[in-house]
Amino acid sequence: MLEAAIDLLRGYGLSGAGINDVVRESAAPKGSVYHFFPGGKLQIAGEALAVYAGRVEAFIDEALSGRRSNPERVRALFDAFAQRVENTSCRRSCAVGTVSLDLGDDAEAFRPLLRGALDSWARVIAHHVDLGEAKRTRSFAGLVLTAIEGAYVRARAEGTGQAFREAGAWLAQLVQ
Amino acid sequence: MLEAAIDLLRGYGLSGAGINDVVRESAAPKGSVYHFFPGGKLQIAGEALAVYAGRVEAFIDEALSGRRSNPERVRALFDAFAQRVENTSCRRSCAVGTVSLDLGDDAEAFRPLLRGALDSWARVIAHHVDLGEAKRTRSFAGLVLTAIEGAYVRARAEGTGQAFREAGAWLAQLVQ
User: Fold this and answer.
1) Spatial separation of the C-alpha atoms in residues B165 and A142, rounded to whole Å
2) What is the ipTM of this complex?
3) Across the interface, do B149 and A145 touch by the CB < 8 Å criterion?
């Protein structure tokens, strides 16, 4: 069920990951969803986001490892994301992006989860792409996340991961 | 009705801008929606996106006008977007972003509209921020759009437009 929820969140955000959608996609009996997730949609989405955030953190860590220079690391990270989105035919993106652009009155309930995911990713980027000064390093990591989230928007609109490669080439220039 | 549709799209993407939502938000009789938009949701969203795209093009043009240098233009553009998102308490973002991250089987129907909007914005950015060589200028304009779309994601997740200002400061360095 959690896998179905993650997939639906990555595709359509909160509005696509209701109880009925998760039941349909996971082929689980409806009663079992309420059994495992008595907190309903907020609980499902919250747990799905937490699992998803951990996976993306590992993905970023892997993409940034074993490179010699900061520009190489930045380019490798964006190339990895380009491949990742193209592997889904540009139909799935970042669950933090889809959920963020779908927040309504539930914004305050979800923001800590979303901020937590972004923070964990920024930390792993800052760990690998060290610009010498902590504040500058953290700010650059923030820019990288901004570009990743925006490249996902363009990838889904354009049907190609090219926006990731474009951003990687430019952002690598900033850390040369 | 078009204004209600634009507002709903900016808030929640396609899934939030169904016929019933537009009827509720615009307080128009349901029959009149079908009268003006016999093509249903695709037609409403399409027309709303077209009007929205024109407005954003004018907004970008205005933000980039009357500045002396490329770095000043870039910073002014991102500052203007930071203000724009904060004016909505970070509850509304770019309709191209929200719709892109919400595409399903309707992707091919919507992609030309989304690509068209992004292209028109890239052209106005490239017109104002000329880096001397056409291909490089166009690529930088693409990066700016990537950063704007991503900063909207972060703004809605974080409840502040700070990601726009951060991106503006970094991207200005690329055109110094």
Assistant:
1) 11
2) 0.96
3) no
